[in-house]
Amino acid sequence: MKRCLLSCLVAPLFVFSQNDPPPNGNLVDIGGYKLHIDIKGKGSPAVVMIAGSQAFSVDWSLVMPGISGITQVCTYDRPALAWSDPGPMPRTFDQDIYELHTLLHKSGVKPPYILVGHSLGGIIARLFEKKYPTEVKGLVLVDATSEDAVLFMNGKIQRLRTFSQNRTNPPVKTKPDTSTKIPAMKDLEEMWKMMGEPKTESPFDRLPKKFQEQRIWAMRQPKFLLADNGPYWADEFSAMYADSLYSLGNKPIYVLSSGRDAFSKNTDSAMKAIWLEKLEQKEKMSNLSSNSKHIITTKSGHEIHLEEPELVINAIKEVIMAVRTGKPLKD
After folding, report:
1. 282: which strand partners?
2. Is residue 142 domain-resident?
3. Are 272 and 233 in contact (CB under 8 A)?
4. Residue 79 lies in a domain
5. pLDDT digits (tens, 9 = 90+) for 258-302
6. 236 located within any domain
7. What is the pLDDT of residue 157?
8. In this structure, what CATH number is given to the domain that contains residue 63?
9. Are the C-beta atoms of residues 220 and 17 closer than 8 Å to each other?
């Protein structure tokens, strides 16, 4: 978990300069701070795309056009990402869910929703559905993170939920306060010394040049250091893992998993075991509903929506059809 909060400037709202790229969508005030949302198409159910940790709305650019012709679809940037202001601190999934729900309401994106979550966005999608089950009619989980996930932390692979301190999340905040502080540029430069300056690497080079440039710009903003800073994640993962009664009933859920590294001849045995466990976790996600489908692709890594966008588009279309007709997902 790479986080270091730093010598900071107290300034909850981000000030754009004339050299910044204009937002692709709209900036919506949700309570003293604005979030960026890009809405295309018309129709119901509305498809809401949720990016992974420190990822951006533009990362869905290869998927969005394939859906906007058949229904309303939107993607957004969580606080401190791209055009969105930094939001209240500390960051929790409860805060993320409140912000997304408020953003959709204020933007006129009405339920029912199909939530499409990539990586950490899959966690947010599932918890959003749990809080607003009558508003969410289906899920598409794109190589989504499991609450039992292992991550590379402190130089070794560790299971995040085991670091839980059994803490209760702090109350959701409806506006930034003095806890919301934008790091100085020198803090971002210190991170670059350790990790390198932002650049476009595969598979993000599959995006149109405009969106590649927007991603680089977004990662060069000091506020980026605040994005998805989750001090309660271990506690939240642990609580999800312990909830053995959680079920989606027969709500359609489509799970897409990357199996490229799990089945590659070039993956060593230790890493292969980790990748195979990830696939088992994804299968458990599909078992949350009696109306589910799980596809494993060996052609993509983690960013399936960039490497095989048609696979994601087709999954979303199947869930849209299941929601509209009330019929089960196709075998």
Report:
1. none
2. yes
3. no
4. yes
5. 999 999 989 999 889 999 999 999 999 999 999 999 999 999 999
6. yes
7. 85
8. 3.40.50.1820
9. no
In contact, 264 and 227? CB cutoff 8 Å: no
What's the domain range around 138? 8-324
Each as own residue / partner, the long-range contacts of residues 166-172 (CB below 8 Å, 24 or more positions apart, any chain) are 166/235, 166/238, 167/232, 167/235, 168/235, 169/92, 169/93, 169/94, 169/232, 169/235, 169/236, 170/90, 170/92, 170/232, 172/92, 172/94, 172/95, 172/98
Which of these ranges, 13-17, 168-172, 261-265, 281-285, has the smallest mean pLDDT?
Answer: 13-17
Q: Distance between CA atoms of 120 and 223, rounded to whole angstroms?
A: 19
The region of weakest confidence among 71-75, 202-206, 327-331 is 327-331
Q: How many domains does the chain have?
A: 1
Give the Cα separation of 180 and 302 in Å (integer): 31
Give me 224's structure tokens: 């980026």
> What is the gyration radius of the CA atoms in the chain, in angstroms?
19
Question: Taking a C-beta distance cutoff of 8 angstroms, is the pair 222, 185 a contact?
Answer: yes
CA torsion, points 311, 241, 283, 233, in degrees to nearest 10? 30
The answer to whether the pTM exceeds 0.70 is yes
Whether residue 178 lies inside any domain: the answer is yes
Amino acid identity of 137?
Answer: K
For the stretch 29-74, pLDDT in tens is 999 999 999 999 999 999 999 999 999 999 999 999 999 999 999 9
Predicted confidence at residue 196, as pLDDT, reads 93
| Residue 138 DSSP SS3 | strand
Q: Give me 105's structure tokens.
A: 């309401």
